[in-house]
Amino acid sequence: MFRTALVGMGLLLGVASHASAATCTNIYNADFGATSYPGTFIGTVSPTGVCQLGNLSISESLQKALIDPTHHPSMYRFHFDGGYLSIDEKLGNNGFNVQVGVNLLAWDGTTATPVPGASMTMPVMSGPTPFQNLISHMLLSAGDYILNNYIVGTDVADPKYQVNFTVAPEPASLAILGMSLVGITALRRRRASA
Q1: Are 66 and 158 in contact (CB under 8 A)?
Q2: In the chain, is it the N or the C terminus that has fewer CB atoms within a 10 Å radius of its CB?
Q3: From CA 78, how far away is CA 11, in angstroms rounded?
Q4: Which positions ≥6 away from 169 have C-beta within 8 Å?
Q5: What letter does residue 71 receive in the DSSP assignment?
Q6: Cα angle 13-15-81, degrees, rounded to a multiple of 5
Q7: Cis peptide before 38 (omega within 30 of 0)
Q8: Is the peptide bond before 73 cis (omega within 30 degrees of 0)?
Q9: Per-residue pLDDT of the chain in tens (194 residues, 90 and over written 9)
Q10: Residue 192, H or E segment
């Protein structure tokens, strides 16, 4: 039992350190998302797939996720293999008195259905906004989803935006954690009775 606990802890620490050290390297850039369903396909969102849309940390001319009155809404479609997902978005430095709405839709190939609890409105400021959370550790089934950004109101603006996707550790990591805890508990009981 002790050996099982040590192996489980070692595997858990290895998985945890790998997950925490992961840096997003697969960034999808496109000037504007499609304005109609099903949106511009960006690939599979996963730890090894697409993890970011747009990039506000590079030069202005290369910031690619945009929305303006002629490209509105701006829709990006992605595949997700199922599990827990967080989506955070921030806007760039363009405009005042304009808000950008964001929502997540499930796409079944013909119909887009809003995901409950996955909607927000972001104000455009004179400087980049902080990241705002669209969904946090939400359990989603496997399938295609559409991230929809749209201008709220009639003011003219062309805010750039960046979206970060974070996929929670897979259930196997949780199983290893459970095995580790069972092994540690058994070891403590064994030592306490000796």
Answers
A1: yes
A2: C
A3: 31
A4: 15, 16, 19
A5: B
A6: 155
A7: yes
A8: yes
A9: 545 444 444 444 444 434 443 577 788 887 788 999 999 999 999 988 899 998 887 765 555 677 777 778 989 999 999 999 999 998 876 555 678 889 999 999 999 999 999 999 987 776 778 899 999 999 999 999 999 998 887 665 667 888 999 998 755 556 666 777 777 887 777 777 77
A10: helix 171-193
Report which residue type is found at 151.
I
| Residues in contact with 100: Cβ distance below 8 Å, sequence separation at least 6, in sequence order | 67, 91, 121, 122, 124, 149, 150, 151, 152, 159, 161
Quote the pLDDT of residue 175: 63
Of 170, 155, 81, nearest to 124 by C-alpha is 155
CA distance 108 to 143: 8
Q: What is the maximum span of the chain, computed from C-alpha positions, in angstroms?
A: 75
Q: What is the pLDDT of residue 156?
A: 58
Q: How far is Cα 94 from Cα 84, in angstroms, rounded to an integer?
A: 32
The alpha carbon of residue 79 and the mean position of all alpha carbons in its chain are separated, in whole angstroms, by: 12
Q: Which residues of 151-187 are buried (b: 16+ CB within 10 A; e: fewer)?
A: beeeeebbbbbbbbbbbbbeeebeebbebbeebbeee
